[in-house]
Structure to design on (750 residues):
């Protein structure tokens, strides 16, 4: 059947070769005037998804019929039925359900009598290119919507400022009304000069330029525009026109303005601070910022000092110190003092030196390092400090003098009592004299301790090699007259292979108080054994450990943390001044040592003291 | 033990002078004691034993008890002045510092001074006196 039809159809076509060629590349169908297929090529079969046999004789659906109501198909049929060739794009659904786009040409073929015998339809599958076309169309539309969404004005002008084209109307004026008018009529005259300059620059130099303008909207609020002007070249490479794109940057300007306000606020704040000195220094050490405090302390005004090196303000031998060296010096001082701030000597405009607290911080901005030197004028503090030191010295002197001066009358009283005892007196007077004697002894003890307190701060820098054996035996001798001294077993163990250097007076005072406590608080009614006071001294390379322990009354746990307090006394059973252990603690601190105490009530007490060797080798 | 023939007491405190004199009396009531309420007077007295104006009728002291804290001239200043004296008699004079001060400084200073034999903490007692003389 296929053969027959082919035979029937082919003779009408002038060139077989041409048909073969077309067959390979295009989609061809031939239909009779009633719309039935008389021929389809293989491409058509592929396109429709049906076999040749199935299609031939069947009514075609692709072109619909002349009875179709859609104006598109109505027009198509009207054209071909009138004997004209129709061209257009048809949409069809493939057997797989995809939408196909076919560029179609339908040619009516007439018989000898001039009657339309058949229609040859040639299709080219343009689905792909059609899709591309649509997507690009879509993109274009999106882009258009996008650009229209931005309140941008794009216009082109000639070198005289005449508007050649514009993308939108301006205000109430329509696009057409704007075109041909003068650009300058839309610009505040204040900016004419600026705009003219920018435009002329573009035309003369063939390079882009920009300008900023401000206009007012109907609400009288400012609208800021930034306009970019770019050259448009003609074929000869000359600037034929310029394109200006103006952008509303009002919001940006407002933000900037606010930032500017903030910045000026902080700047004013910074510059007016006059209690602290704040100086900003760049990476080579030159001053870039200067505040009131700095002016007040150093005497220079900002104009006088900015650009000068920071080293000019610091009294260091080398005036040409750069910032790195200053940083290094500051770091070094910091290391040795363990302080966040260091104290250095500043030097003012008139050459006067004064102490300042100095802190340096740095930050990086745009690859440059900046330093902020913050200083606090210490002159007043220093004066107060000196005054305080003087006052403290006075007070210590007063304490020292009074304790010594008080000793004299007490010693006289002791002497007098001594004499009274030898007189012929009755028992009552003997009793009274004994009471007077113990009262005076107590007074002497207090005064002795006060004298020791005052001695602590006196000459503690005098350091000698310490002979512990001598020191302890001297001390024990001084206690010989003490109550219970003879009943106590003193155990002394000294291992002193290293030479220990310290302040002999203070160490003596330390031992004196600890041994005295051991004697005073000894327990004379022990159930087992004999009361003892044990003194262990062991020297090491670092220093010395002194242990004074006893089996005396001991200290209750709740009192242990208070025993080093001034005037603290556990009880009134044993007479004391409340200064002994305060002095001990004070001395240990003064000698950079440590003290530990362990005690159990009715068991005994052990004081352990570590003192550093104050001269190393 | 050498024989002590005369003792000199230098102290600005009259009560201490009284106590010390009493104690010395208890030690030996026959011992002459010369009392001076300030160091200058004592020094002037001692100048009488110098080469040029020696007076054999009075006895030079064997022992001086010297207070430290005194107005005008203190004990240490007295020691310096004493050092300048040139005695005709070569008999040595022993000087003891007698003070209520237990200050380590004073004690060290006294012990380091060659003219000072020893340092005694007040009050002077018979017991203390017995150990030194």
């Amino acid at each position: 059947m296929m053969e027959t039809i082919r035979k029937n159809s082919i003779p009408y076509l002038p060139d077989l070769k041409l048909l073969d060629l077309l067959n390979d590349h295009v989609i061809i169908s031939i239909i009779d005037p009633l719309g039935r297929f008389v021929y389809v090529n293989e491409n058509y079969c592929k396109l429709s998804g049906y076999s040749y046999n199935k299609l031939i004789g069947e009514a075609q659906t692709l072109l619909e019929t002349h009875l179709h109501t859609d104006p598109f198909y109505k027009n198509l049929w009207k054209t071909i039925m009138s004997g004209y060739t129709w061209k257009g794009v048809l949409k069809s659904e493939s057997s797989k359900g995809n939408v196909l786009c076919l560029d179609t040409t339908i040619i009516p073929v007439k018989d000898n009598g001039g009657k339309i015998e058949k229609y040859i339809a040639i299709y080219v599958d343009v689905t792909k290119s059609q899709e591309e076309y649509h997507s690009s169309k879509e993109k274009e539309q999106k882009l258009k919507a996008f650009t229209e969404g931005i309140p941008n004005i794009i216009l082109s002008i000639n070198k005289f400022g005449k508007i050649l084209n514009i993308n939108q109307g301006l205000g109430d004026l329509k696009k057409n009304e704007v075109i041909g008018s003068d650009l300058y009529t839309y610009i505040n005259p204040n900016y004419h000069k600026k705009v003219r300059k920018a435009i002329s620059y573009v035309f003369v130099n063939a390079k882009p330029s920009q300008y900023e303008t401000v206009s007012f909207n109907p609400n009288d609020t400012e609208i800021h525009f930034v306009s970019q002007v770019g050259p448009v070249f003609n074929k000869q490479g000359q600037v034929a026109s310029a394109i200006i794109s103006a952008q509303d940057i009002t919001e940006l300007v407002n933000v900037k303005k606010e930032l500017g306000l903030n910045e000026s606020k902080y700047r004013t704040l910074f510059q007016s601070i006059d209690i602290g000195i704040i100086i900003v220094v760049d990476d080579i050490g030159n001053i870039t910022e200067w505040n009131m405090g700095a002016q007040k302390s150093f005497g220079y005004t900002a104009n006088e000092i900015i650009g000068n090196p920071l080293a000019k303000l610091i009294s260091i031998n080398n005036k040409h110190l750069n910032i790195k060296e200053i940083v290094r010096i500051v770091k070094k001082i910091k290391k040795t003092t363990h302080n966040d701030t260091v104290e250095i000597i500043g030097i003012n405009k008139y050459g006067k030196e004064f102490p300042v607290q100095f802190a340096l911080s740095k930050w990086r901005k745009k690859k440059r390092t900046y330093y902020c030197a913050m200083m606090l004028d210490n002159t007043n503090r220093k004066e107060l400090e000196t005054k305080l030191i003087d006052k403290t010295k006075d007070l210590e002197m007063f304490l020292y003098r009074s304790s010594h001066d008080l000793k004299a009358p007490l010693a006289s009283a002791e002497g007098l009592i001594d004499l009274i005892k030898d007189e012929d007196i009755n028992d009552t007077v003997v009793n009274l004299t004994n009471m007077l004697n113990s009262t005076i002894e107590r007074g002497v003890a207090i005064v002795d301790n006060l004298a020791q307190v005052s001695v602590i701060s006196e000459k503690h820098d005098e350091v000698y090699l310490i002979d512990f054996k001598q020191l302890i035996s001297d001390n024990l001798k001084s206690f010989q007259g003490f109550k219970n001294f003879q009943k106590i077993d003193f155990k002394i163990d000294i291992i002193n292979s290293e030479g220990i250097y310290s302040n002999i007076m203070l160490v003596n005072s330390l031992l004196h108080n600890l041994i005295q406590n051991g004697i005073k608080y000894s327990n004379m009614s022990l159930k087992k054994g004999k009361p003892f006071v044990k003194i262990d001294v062991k020297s090491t390379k670092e220093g010395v450990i002194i242990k004074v322990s006893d089996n005396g009354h001991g200290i209750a746990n709740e009192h242990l943390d208070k025993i080093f307090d001034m005037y603290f006394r556990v009880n009134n059973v044993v007479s004391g001044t409340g200064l002994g252990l305060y002095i001990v603690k004070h001395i240990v601190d003064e000698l950079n040592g440590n003290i530990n105490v362990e005690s159990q009530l009715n068991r005994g007490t052990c004081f352990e003291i570590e003192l550093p060797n104050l001269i190393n080798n | 033990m050498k024989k002590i023939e005369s003792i000199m007491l230098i102290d600005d405190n009259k009560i201490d002078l009284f106590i010390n004199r009493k104690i010395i009396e208890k030690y030996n009531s026959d011992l002459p004691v010369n009392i001076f309420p300030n160091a200058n007077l004592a020094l002037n007295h001692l100048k009488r034993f110098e080469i040029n104006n020696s007076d054999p009728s009075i006895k030079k002291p064997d022992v001086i008890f010297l207070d430290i804290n005194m107005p005008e001239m203190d004990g240490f200043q007295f020691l310096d002045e004493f050092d300048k004296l040139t005695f005709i008699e070569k008999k040595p004079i022993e000087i003891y510092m007698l003070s209520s001060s237990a200050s380590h400084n004073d004690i060290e200073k006294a012990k380091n001074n060659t003219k000072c034999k020893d340092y005694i903490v007040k009050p002077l007692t018979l017991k203390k006196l017995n150990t030194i003389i």
